[in-house]
Automatic annotation (TrEMBL):
Top-level taxonomy: Eukaryota, Viridiplantae, Streptophyta, Embryophyta, Tracheophyta
Binding positions (heme b): 224
Species annotation: Nelumbo nucifera (Sacred lotus)
Protein name per Swiss-Prot or TrEMBL: DOMON domain-containing protein
TM region positions: 222-243, 255-278
Superkingdom of origin: Eukaryota
Length: 311
C-alpha cells in the first residue's frame, strides 16, 4: 500500500515545495519608503510580519508591523502586553482605512474582552505613529519606548472587520486566538503560545491512540480520517476565501480548480488501485487459510486410519 501511495505523496510534496518557495518572507521584503530595519520575524499566523530596529542606548525600538491579505473593510493591530500574555492588558497600535480613504493609526489600551479598540494613551510612550495601505497590505510604523527597557516582551497581533469607520470584534477561533507569544528584540527569538498548545494536543492524541486489536480502534480510525479529510476540505475552502479577499481574477480560480480536479482524480485512481490490491490480498489469505485447515484435517485423518489398522 505504501508503494502505491508514493506517487501521490511525491506529487503533494512537489506542489508544496513550489508554493512554499514562492511564499513571501520578511527577509525578502523591501519597503517602498526606503525604510530599513535590522531584524524581522515571520509571525506564524494571520499573514503577518514584524520588522524592527532596537536601540539599547535609547531603550526604544522602531517597528513596522505588516499584515497582508486584508481589505479596506479590515482593521489590524499589533500590541505589547507588559503584564501578561493575551488580549487583556495589551497596549495596541491600531490602523484601518477611514471612509474618506485616509489611513488612521492610533493607540488603544485593551482593558476587557469586549473592547471596541477606543483610542487612548498607552502605558509607554509611542511616537512617529503612522499607517499605510497598499496592494491589500496594511503596515503600521511606530517608535516605542520599551517599558523598563525590556528586551523580551509579550506580543499580540490581530485583524478584524470595520463597519462604518468603527472596529468590530474579531473572530474568536482558529488563528485569531493563536496570534500571541513572546519576542526578544535582541536575539530575534519568538515563541507562540497557541502553536505550542496545539503541538502538545497532537502529541497527546498519538499517546491516546488504541492498539490495532483494541475494541476502540475502529472509533479512533473514524476520528482520525474525519479530522484528516476535514482539514483538507477546509484548506481548499480557505484558498478560495483568499482569492476573494485578494480580489484576484477568475483565471486564478480556474487554475486552482484545475489543480484540485487533477489531484482528486489521481487520489480516486490510487484509492481504487489500493483497495483492489487489499481485497486481492485478503482473498488470497482467506484461501490459504482454508486450504491449510483442510490439509491439517487430512493429515490427521490419514494417521488416524493408519493407527487403527496397526491396532
Amino acid at each position: 500500500m505504501t508503494t502505491v501511495s508514493s506517487p501521490m505523496l511525491f506529487l503533494c510534496v512537489l506542489i508544496s515545495l513550489f508554493f512554499s518557495s514562492s511564499a513571501q518572507t520578511c527577509q525578502s521584503y523591501t519597503f517602498s519608503s526606503n525604510r530599513q530595519f535590522s531584524s524581522c520575524s515571520d509571525l506564524p499566523v494571520l499573514n503577518s510580519y514584524l520588522h524592527w530596529t532596537y536601540s539599547p542606548s535609547a531603550g526604544s525600538v522602531q517597528i513596522a508591523y505588516r499584515h497582508t491579505g486584508v481589505t479596506t473593510s479590515n482593521w489590524v493591530a499589533w500590541a505589547i502586553n507588559p503584564t501578561s500574555q493575551g488580549m487583556i492588558g495589551a497596549q495596541a497600535l491600531v490602523a484601518y482605512q477611514q471612509s474618506n480613504g485616509s489611513m488612521l493609526a492610533y493607540t488603544s489600551p485593551v482593558t476587557s474582552v469586549s473592547t471596541s479598540l477606543a483610542e487612548g494613551n498607552l502605558s509607554f510612550q509611542v511616537s512617529d505613529l503612522l499607517a499605510t495601505f497598499d496592494n491589500n497590505e496594511m503596515t503600521i510604523f511606530a517608535t516605542i519606548e520599551l517599558p523598563n527597557n525590556l528586551t523580551t516582551v509579550n506580543q499580540v497581533w490581530q485583524v478584524g472587520p470595520v463597519d462604518q469607520s468603527t472596529p468590530r470584534s474579531h473572530t474568536t477561533s482558529g488563528d485569531n486566538i493563536n496570534s500571541k507569544g513572546s519576542l526578544n528584540f535582541l536575539s530575534g527569538q519568538t515563541t507562540t503560545t497557541g502553536n505550542s498548545v496545539q503541538r502538545r494536543r497532537n502529541v497527546l492524541a498519538l499517546l491516546l491512540r488504541p492498539n490495532k486489536d483494541h475494541k476502540y480502534r475502529f472509533y479512533w480510525n473514524i476520528y482520525h480520517h474525519s479530522i484528516g479529510y476535514s482539514v483538507i476540505i477546509l484548506s481548499v475552502i480557505n484558498i478560495f476565501k483568499g482569492f476573494d479577499i485578494l480580489q484576484l481574477g477568475k483565471n486564478w480560480k480556474r487554475a486552482y480548480i484545475g489543480i484540485i480536479v487533477f489531484l482528486g482524480f489521481n487520489f480516486l485512481m490510487l484509492e481504487a488501485i489500493t483497495w483492489n490490491i487489499v481485497l486481492k490480498r485478503r482473498s488470497r489469505s482467506s484461501e490459504k487459510s482454508h486450504h491449510g485447515v483442510n490439509g491439517v484435517n487430512g493429515v490427521n485423518g490419514y494417521y488416524g486410519d493408519r493407527s487403527q489398522e496397526v491396532v
